Input
Amino acid sequence: MAGEKINYEYITEYLHQILPETTGYLRAMEEYANKNDVPIIHKEMKAFLEVLCKVKKPDRILEIGSAIGYSASCMALACGNCCQITTIERDSDMTTLAINNFEKLGLSDQIRIIEGDAVEVLSCLTSKYDMIFIDAAKGYYNEFFEYAINLINDGGLIISDNVLYKGMTAEDSIVKRRQKTIVGRMREYLIMLCNHKKLTTSVIPIGDGVAVSIYNERGNDIE
Ligand code: SAH
Ligand code: MG
Output
């Protein structure tokens, strides 16, 4: 078992090759992230998120885990300026970088960043969102979800990044001992997502694995 990569190397390389290079300031953000080991969304995930944004046309997006604000910026640019984004980040250095990046991209009016631990911040939010992007500490997705499910509008999308966690979620033999707890939690999370009565979920093996769930308030069971 190879591990580390979700997809065959040649497929990932091919997908990276056919997608256009990012230009301008977003490109500078990618370079900063690569140099400083900031785990921003992969290129094919960026394209997928942009497609989801353009299909869903959300008025309000919530993001858990901003880092330098790369994915929030990608979503803001894909949605156009009618969309408001709230993004949560607990690291103050990252928050400072993200605020600066939003300014450079002219997105400060569109994106609000809240510094703090996501569970604490989420417990204070009351208005609902059309799209929620979960991309923070992998061991806490279950906790984040408990809030997310109450903050999503009917027909809204909950997108969970890194759910295949370098393949470890799918295969015991590549799970490193240190990651055992996180992997166990991620497996529980995916099973819950896939079997939730009010969600329709698709797990897609691109990037580090992404789950897309649509929320249906009345439930999926046809009477
Ligand atoms: N979404 C970003 C990358 C986020 S990386 C992008 O693709 O551009 C994950 C971020 O989540 C890190 O910056 C980390 O500090 C933050 N994070 C992890 N656990 C968190 C928590 N419990 N509350 C808030 N932020 C958290
Ligand atoms: Mg991620």
